[in-house]
Amino acid sequence: MRIILLGAPGSGKGTQGEKMAAHYGIPKLSTGDALRAAVAAGTELGKKAKATMDAGKLVANELVYGIVEQRLAQPDAQKGFILDGFPRNIAQADVLEGMLSKLKAPSISKALHLHVEDEEIITRLHSRAIKEGRADDTEEVIRKRIAIYNADTSPLLDYYQKQGKLVTLEGKGGLEEIFARIIKAL
Ligand code: AMP
Confidence class of residue 135 from pLDDT cuts 50, 70 and 90? Predict the structure, then answer.
């Protein structure tokens, strides 16, 4: 099972992705988490990514390719994986296909899209900002991140729809309720 999670920031894909990973016994890779860890550790990658992340923009594609390629080559990812936050644009989706064929791995099975309205997203991200204190969760940055999702990432819905892989689910409701919806749909 090779799953891509699609949805605006705050759509709940990170949380649901964790639950799916536990349920299916496959790893989840979040490029956002990996980048935040690199920033916290002060690595070269982290130094290159920090200002762009704080501004709510996407970092250069090349900065995330290494993270994904290395993780997908690990033994535990051979029977499947869940990608959270990658691909973020069409170029990344094409590169992902190239990585999988290089690894002689099957292509993506499904792209799971959690749909949540913009206004609901803004409310959720505000409360996350208060709880977690994420630097990229301020009002201005939140709006920027949503705009970038709509401009760069949402074309992936069409991309995977054309491949017959898109599954769109309503991302509003209780955690367990949404999780049950996901398991049923996959
Ligand atoms: P996320 O936690 O997935 O919302 O990611 C947080 C931030 O990390 C994003 O706003 C981007 O700056 C950066 N980021 C994460 N994944 C990617 C990606 N696939 N391509 C470019 N930037 C990314």
Answer: low
| Structural domain includes residue 33 | no
Q: How confident is the model at residue 164 (pLDDT cuts 50, 70, 90)?
A: very high
Per the structure, the count of domains in the chain is 1
Tell me which residues are annotated as active site.
13, 88, 128, 134, 145
pLDDT at 126: 85
Q: Is 32 in the pocket of ligand 1 (CB under 6 A)?
A: yes
Domain that holds residue 82: 2-27+74-181
User: Would residue 10 count as lying in a domain?
Assistant: yes
Residue 102's domain is classified under what CATH number?
3.40.50.300
Which ligand 1 atom is nearest residue 31's CA? Answer: 16
- In this prediction, residue 65 carries a pLDDT of 98
In-domain check, residue 32: no
Give the number of the atom of ligand 1 that is nearest the alpha carbon of residue 35. 8
3-state secondary structure the chain: CEEEEECCCCCCHHHHHHHHHHHHCCCEEEHHHHHHHHHHHCCHHHHHHHHHHHCCCCCCHHHHHHHHHHHHCCHHHCCCEEEECCCCCHHHHHHHHHHHHHCCCCCCCEEEEEECCHHHHHHHHHHHHHHHCCCCCCHHHHHHHHHHHHHHHCHHHHHHHHCCCEEEEECCCCHHHHHHHHHHHC
